[in-house]
Amino acid sequence: MPFETKATIASFGGKLHKLTHPSTSTGTPMAVNLYLPPQSFSSPNPKPAPLLIYLSGLTCTPENCSEKGFLQHRASQLGLALLYPDTSPRGLNLPGETASWDFGASAGFYVDATQAPWKDGYRMESYITRELPQALFSDAEFGGRLDGDRVSIMGHSMGGHGALTLYLKNPGMYKSVSAFAPISNPGKCPWGEKAFSGYFGEDREEWKKHDATELVKGWTGGDLKALVDVGTGDNFYKQGQLLPENLEEAAREAGVEGLTLRYQEGYDHSYYFIATFADDHVNHAAKHLGLL
Amino acid sequence: MPFETKATIASFGGKLHKLTHPSTSTGTPMAVNLYLPPQSFSSPNPKPAPLLIYLSGLTCTPENCSEKGFLQHRASQLGLALLYPDTSPRGLNLPGETASWDFGASAGFYVDATQAPWKDGYRMESYITRELPQALFSDAEFGGRLDGDRVSIMGHSMGGHGALTLYLKNPGMYKSVSAFAPISNPGKCPWGEKAFSGYFGEDREEWKKHDATELVKGWTGGDLKALVDVGTGDNFYKQGQLLPENLEEAAREAGVEGLTLRYQEGYDHSYYFIATFADDHVNHAAKHLGLL
After folding, report:
1. Starting at the edge strand that comes first in sequence, how are the strands of the sheet with B146-156 ordered?
2. Where in the sequence is the active site (chains A, B) (predicted)?
3. Of A203, A244, B139, B212, which is most buried with the most CB atoms under 10 A?
4. Range A139-145 contact pairs with CB under 8 angstroms and sequence separation of 24 or more
């Protein structure tokens, strides 16, 4: 099914397309923003752009990072496209779906739920890894402007968990991964325990399949090509929701190399933090996508 | 009266201070955000930073440009401080104050009203040109970090009107001016007619004292040092709310030089537009503030 364009906005020389499309994974319409850099539509020789997927955090929509993350600044210089998906299905009207800000709507955790009533629509893993890229790369309007063989992934907070786990579960699907303040060990933090109990039930062995700290132990893909930034002033880090140290220790114990974990002095959990280091994360992806 | 700090947020190596202080101009507490670049507090040799005041548009608060304008990106590199005031008094509870999005609350137009009931609190011109800088430059915490002799001003839409008129009314107060999509001839557009009728009454001669297109005719300060960007996809431009061509024609007829008016192909009225050319506007101010 084609994408419907709700708005096209000029940004840093490129175009931000605000789109919606019907999803079979979620059974709902899904909003998604696509940024095409100027190189992908400049005449006379447009160049298909590699794609960096940005997964957003709890409470977010495709708008948050489009407006406040400033990934477009550096992506436009390098010729990199950006994809900003939503954080959950919207409008399924499941019982309790909008009762919490950290579970249900806007808190899909980028997994395919196995428990009722969530299992029928909360299938963000299938949506992000298969349905959305397939729809995009085969789209009549946008497909030709993108290089579907060169894709990287990144995210923030819950989206950092999403980026790390989808990367670790699918060797070769993405050329690199990066994260701001990721939920790095959801099986051991309150946010993750709440979400995984709801989406997967109480079998904690099942949870490990969706936990970056567990998944990294089985990584056999070589250099991890992972960049992670965490602010030392981040209250969620201080509260033990993020646990990046567990991810780092697990990687070290497993002999996995290529995880660059940086602690940024005084930065919080907000988009002010993301904006500050946005160029670094775009450069990280661009290097592994052959743009730098 | 001192400023009260509501939050301090790390941004691009500097600090964004979310402040509030009681204002005698408005008779209300006023929110204001101050960005201090790293150079202004780095040890061992902190350097007092020149200041760029950003006046925001209709419906905005100090948060909009702090989050979405991207001015901190370049200001942090150059050692420039940024000041984001609010767009009106808040909480006066005047009749009709919150009935419109383009008059009253969040629509103070950076003038001192002369008509009841607005004249007692809607005094944003006095607040921006005198009270706020005086309070800031004499403040025990922030004053020493700022160079009160080097100040420039800029703004967006209603704030572009504010920046241009306060600059033109006060030769020497600001080293330069710039604007995104400014209301350039408020006496001739619906937004301006509504606001000026309410704040000044129906005497259109009075209106001319607060209209950049009229004020530029009397400018005797030499090179205008003004940069204005307008997007050709801006619906408010197309509707005749901005009228930058009138400002340009008035300057030309008056023999005033130094107005650079650029039309940016396809850009709209949003912060996506501002973010794209934020570096240019910071560079413009920095050049006239001796930082470039």
Report:
1. B4-11, B14-22, B29-36, B81-85, B49-55, B146-156, B177-180, B226-231, B259-264
2. 157 (charge relay system), 234 (charge relay system), 269 (charge relay system)
3. B212
4. A139/A2, A139/A3, A140/A2, A141/A2, A141/A3, A142/A3, A142/A17, A142/A34, A142/A36, A144/A48, A145/A36, A145/A40, A145/A41, A145/A46, A145/A48, A145/A49, A145/A81
* Interval B54-70: pLDDT, tens: 999 999 999 999 999 99
Asked if A11 is an interface residue toward chain B (Cβ–Cβ < 8 A), one would say yes
At A87-134, the pLDDT tens digits run: 999 999 999 999 999 999 999 999 999 999 999 999 999 999 999 999
Question: In terms of CA atoms, which chain A residue is nearest residue B276?
Answer: A12
Nearest to B228 by CA among B181, B275, B285, B289: B181
pTM flag (> 0.95): yes
**Nearest-CA neighbor of B89 among B8, B21, B182?**
B21
User: Of B247, B51, B60, which Cα lies nearest the Cα of B153?
Assistant: B51
Closest chain A residue to the Cα of B232, Cα to Cα:
A10
| Tokens representing residue B284 in the block | 């413009």
Residues of A in contact with B68 (CB under 8 A): 67-68
SS3 category, A57 = coil
Residue B270: which of A9, A268, A276 has the nearest Cβ? A9
Is residue A147 a contact partner of residue A50, using CB atoms and an 8 Å limit?
yes
In the predicted model, is pLDDT for residue B177 greater than 90?
yes
User: Is the CATH number of domain A4-288 3.40.50.11890?
Assistant: no
Task: Report chain B residues whose CB lies below 8 A from the CB of A264.
Answer: 10
Closest approach of A265 to chain B, Cα-based (Å) = 9
pLDDT in tens, B72-81: 999 999 999 9
Q: For residue B138, give Cα distances in angstroms to A42, A180, B5, B132.
A: 52, 38, 16, 10
pLDDT in tens, A171-202: 999 999 999 999 999 999 999 999 999 999 99
> Would you call B196 an interface residue with chain A, using a CB distance cutoff of 8 Å?
no
Q: What's the DSSP call for residue B35?
A: E
Indicate the domain borders of chain A: 4-288
Which of A12, A273, A275 comes nearest B276 by C-beta?
Answer: A12
Q: In chain A, which residues have their Cβ closer than 8 Å to the Cβ of B273?
A: 10
Looking at beta carbons, which residues of chain A come within 8 Å of B84? none
For A233-265, how does the pLDDT look when each residue is reduced to its tens digit (9 = 90+)? 999 999 999 999 999 999 999 999 999 999 999
Instruction: Check CB contact under 8 Å for B10 and A231.
Output: yes
Strand partners, B33: B18, B84
- Strand bridging mode B49-55 / B81-85: parallel
Active-site residue (options: A157, A176, A178, A184): A157
In this complex, which of A13, A68, A73 lies closest to B68 when CB atoms are compared?
A: A68
Catalytic sites of B, residue numbers:
157, 234, 269
Q: Report CA-CA distances (Å) from A137 to A110, A118, A148.
A: 20, 28, 6
Contact of B257 with B224, CB cutoff 8 Å = yes
Residues in a beta bridge with B227: B178, B260
Is A130:A137 a contact under the CB 8 Å cutoff?
no
